[in-house]
Amino acid sequence: MKRPTMADIARRAGVTKAAVSFALNGRPGVSEHTRRRILAIADELGWQPNSAARALSDGRAGVFGLVIDRPARTLGLEPFFMQLISGIQAELSADGTPLLFTVAEDQRAELDTYRTWWAQRRVDGVFLVDMQTEDARVAVLEELGMPTVVIGAPIGTGRLPAVWSDDSVGVRTVLEHLAGLGHLRIARVCGPAHLRHTAIRSDAVARLAPALGMECTTVATDYSAEQGAAAARTLLTRADPPTALLFDSDLTAVSGVTAAQSLGLRVPADVSVVAWGDSALCELVHPPVTALSRDVAAHGGHAARLLRAAAAGCQVAHLQDEDARLVLRGSTGPARRLPGPRAGTGAGAGAAEAPATRD
Which of 272, 293, 314 is a domain's end point? Predict the structure, then answer.
């Protein structure tokens, strides 16, 4: 079926294309009666504005963009991004604004996408996620003049506004909970070390753990379930295994529970598990996983409102969202008594001791 055009509306209404244009764009030049008749015919025919033509006429695409530089295989299993995108889309759908979404294979490809989108007027602005400790995207987006909202801490973001929550508060909440249960030897399974939020959490652990009398070993992963499980097995088969594990995502935490149980360990009697990020996954395992929880969909909605304002030419400032709260479930409990390393006993018998790295 041919896409209806303004010429089709003009023929059906018995008016000129100019009159149709005036009516559809809310401009003077036609009577109110004629305007209502044209709008009714446009609705009957299923007419929609041509976004390319609109971009040429007023410079706006009516679309926002999101590029994520992560493997599509792991991204599809990441509850955080699914919740974030749903929140962004829910807010944008209020005025019919589409979200143009794609996955890039690396940062160079991501930057090429931004340049192409802006040159072709395909988007009016973008959301920037997964900020890095050394991030080339900020300078490029500032140079392009593309409205951008960072979803992450306002560190190294230049003039770009950010929507964020304080990760160091989450670290304190978890460490105080575990310390209160008697856990003094813990381990953290984090994401890629080059990500800004990983560094913020690592700095917070390094600062807060010693004050609570705790040791913390850190293992970096790519957030996949496979690497989360492998890290858990490595840590739990040491001669001096931790009594608690903090995972930087819900997906890796769930895989960590499964890995611990495959070693014959009881959760939480032998090892406690905490997830950074909450989702239905945390309640689908036994025991359900204690997790830092916040409304990620609302977080995405706040970012969308900020980007809409920025794209409209408004001056926008950083927006600090609510801190995560700890949802207590069955995966955390009192620490087991910590014996010294003993050859031939325990889950770590015969295993080589991995060097401890402090956050």
Answer: 293
355 belongs to a structural domain: no
* Counted domains in the chain: 3
Q: State whether 120 and 218 are in the same domain.
A: no
H or E stretch covering 261: helix 250-262
Nearest Cα residue to 178 out of 272, 56, 53: 272
Domain shared by 194 and 282, yes or no: yes
List, for residues 5-54, the tens digit of each pLDDT value: 888 898 999 999 888 888 887 778 888 899 899 999 988 888 776 655 55
271, pLDDT greater than 50:
yes
pTM, two decimal places: 0.78
Report if residue 328 sits inside a domain: no
As a dihedral over the C-alpha atoms of residue 176, residue 168, residue 151, residue 111, rounded to 10 degrees, the angle is -120
* Structure-block tokens of residue 240: 């001096």
The domain in which residue 72 lies consists of: 64-165+298-323
Residue 247 phi/psi, 5° resolution? -100, 140
pLDDT digits (tens, 9 = 90+) for 217-231: 999 999 999 999 999
| pLDDT tens figures, 190-213 | 999 999 999 999 999 999 999 999
Write the DSSP string, 99-148.
EEEEE-SSHHHHHHHHHHHHHTT--S-EEE-S-BSS-THHHHHHHHT--E
User: Phi, psi (5° rounding) for residue 137?
Assistant: -70, -30
